[in-house]
Automatic annotation (TrEMBL), chain A:
PROSITE patterns: ABC_TRANSPORTER_1 (PS00211), ABC_TRANSPORTER_2 (PS50893). PANTHER family: D,D-DIPEPTIDE TRANSPORT ATP-BINDING PROTEIN DDPF-RELATED (PTHR43776:SF7), TRANSPORT ATP-BINDING PROTEIN (PTHR43776). It comes from the Bacteria. Keywords: ATP-binding, Nucleotide-binding, Transport. GO terms for biological process: transmembrane transport. GO terms for molecular function: ATP binding; ATP hydrolysis activity. Gene3D superfamilies: P-loop containing nucleotide triphosphate hydrolases. It comes from Gracilibacillus ureilyticus. This is Peptide/nickel transport system ATP-binding protein. Transmembrane segments: none annotated. The keyword Membrane does not apply. Belongs to the ABC transporter superfamily. Residues 2-199 form the ABC transporter domain. InterPro entries: AAA+_ATPase, ABC_transp_ATP-bind, ABC_transporter-like_ATP-bd, ABC_transporter-like_CS, P-loop_NTPase.
UniProtKB/TrEMBL annotation, chain B:
Keywords: Cell membrane, Membrane, Transmembrane, Transmembrane helix, Transport. This is Peptide/nickel transport system permease protein. Its main location: membrane. GO terms for biological process: transmembrane transport. It comes from the Bacteria. It is found in: Cell membrane. It is a multi-pass membrane protein. The chain crosses the membrane at residues 6-22, 63-86, 106-133, 173-194, 228-249. Signal peptide: none annotated. Residues 61-250 form the ABC transmembrane type-1 domain.
Amino acid sequence: MLTAKNISYYVDKSTPLFRNLEFSINKGEIIGLMGRSGAGKTTFAKILAGYDVPDEGEVSIKQKKGEPHPVQLIWQHPEQAVNPKWRIEKVLREAGEPDSEIVELFGIEKEWLKRFPLQLSGGELQRVCIARCLLTNPNYIIADEMTTMLDPISQAAIWKAFIKIAKQRKIGLLVISHDRHLLERLCGKILTFDQISQLK
Amino acid sequence: MKKWTYLPVILLVLLYVISMLIDPDKISIQLEERNLPPGFSHLFGTDWLGRDMFLRTMKGIELSITVGLLTAVLSTIVSFLAAMLASMHKWLDRLISWLTDLFLSLPHLVTLILISFTLGGGFKGVVIGLVLTHWPSLTRVLRAEILQLKETKYVKISEKLGKGFWWQARHHYLPHLLPQMLVGFTLIFPHAILHEASITFLGFGLSPEQPAIGIILSEAMQYLSTGFWWLAFFPGLILLIIILLFQICAKAWKSYLEKDFSHENIVRD
Ligand SMILES: Nc1ncnc2c1ncn2[C@@H]1O[C@H](COP(=O)(O)OP(=O)(O)OP(=O)(O)O)[C@@H](O)[C@H]1O
Ligand SMILES: [Mg+2]
C-alpha cells in the first residue's frame, strides 16, 4: 500500500498550500482525484512520486538507489517530459527494453522510433510517455491531467489501453482530472482534494 | 553553418600533417650555407649554423600544435568533469566556484610560469600548467548550462526512471554541452599555443633541445641586431597566422551557436 501520512507543504514559511493531508491507495486500486485549480494536486502528485519533498509528513514508498521509482508520474505536457534531442527509440529505452505488448497496446508505430519528439503530435508523444513509464514496471502510477489536451476519441482509446494494463499488472492508479465524467467512468472511488487535505 | 568556417581547420590539419612528415634529420648543420636570406633554395632562409629555417619552423609548428591540441582536449575534459562535479553537491559547487574564481583572478602567464616551473618545466610541465590555467573559464560556462538543464523535467524524470548521475552525465548532459565544449576547445587552442611559446621564449617552458617556436624566437633574438630578420620573422608570422585562423573559426562557431542553439533544433540536420 502507498500511503501519505500527515503531509504539509508550504509555499513559503507562513503560507501553507495544504496541511495534514492523508491519503492511501492499494495495488490494483483506481482512485480519482478532483479539486479546484491551484489547490495543490500537481504538487501532491510530485511529492508522491518523489519529485518534491513535503515540509512535514512521510510518504511510505521511496525510490531505491539505482532502481526506478515504484511510483511513477505521468505529466500533463509530454513535450517537456522527453529530451528533445533524443529519438523516440532512445526515449523509450531510458526506461528499459521496449516491450512489444505495451508498444502495440498504445499504438506506437515502428516508424516513430526514428523520429524526434517534436516530430510527433502531442497525443502520440503522450502515448510514448505512458509506455515509457510502464516499462519500469511501477507498482503505482499517478496520471496528472494525462489526457487533457486530447480529443475525446483518442482520450477514450488511451484510457482503455491504460486501464487494461493497470488491471492486468495490478497497478495502483491515481487519476487527477477536472473531468468528473471521465473519473466516474474509470475510477472505483473519487476523492476531492479538500476531502484529503484538511486545510482550515 | 557556413562552409568557410571549416577552412581554418582544414588548413591547420594540412599544416600539421606536412610538418609531421618532415624528417628531423634533414635539419642538418651545413656551415657553408650559414645565414642565407630567404630565397628559392631556402624559403625562410638559414640560421647561423646553416640549418633550413623553413624546416625548423615547420617542426616548431608541429610541436606547438601538439601542445595546443593536447592542452585544449585535456582542459575541455577537466572543465566538463569539474562542472559535473559542481552540480553534484552544494559544497562541491562552492569549492569549484572558489577555485575557478581564484584561477581567473590570477594572470594566466604568472600562474602558468609558477606551475610549469614547480613541475620542472619540459613538455609535461608546460601541458599540465596550461591545462590548470585554462579550465576555469569553460567550467563557468558549462556550470551555468548544467544548472539550467538540471531543472528540466526530462532530466528529473531520468532519475525517477532509475538512471544514475554518470549515466545522465553521459546521455543527457554531454550531448547538450558538446557545442559549448567545442567552442571552448577552439578558444583554448590558440591561447595554449601562444602561452606555450611565450613561456618557452622566457625560458620556463620546453627545453632548448626541442624545436619549439619559442626556442627559435629566443635564439633569434641574439641575431636580430645583426640584421638577420628572417630568423624571427617567418616563425613569428606562421604562429600568428595559425592563431588568427583559429580565432576566426572560434568566433564563427560561437555566433552560430548563439543563434541556433536557443531553438534546440540542431539535431535535425
Ligand atoms: N515553485 C513554486 N513556487 C511558488 N509557488 C508554486 C510553485 N509551484 C506551484 N506553486 C503554487 O502552488 C499552487 C498549487 O499548484 P499546483 O500545480 O499543485 O495546483 P493544481 O491543483 O495542480 O492546479 P491545476 O488544477 O490548475 O493543475 C499554485 O497556486 C501555484 O501557483
Ligand atoms: Mg496541476
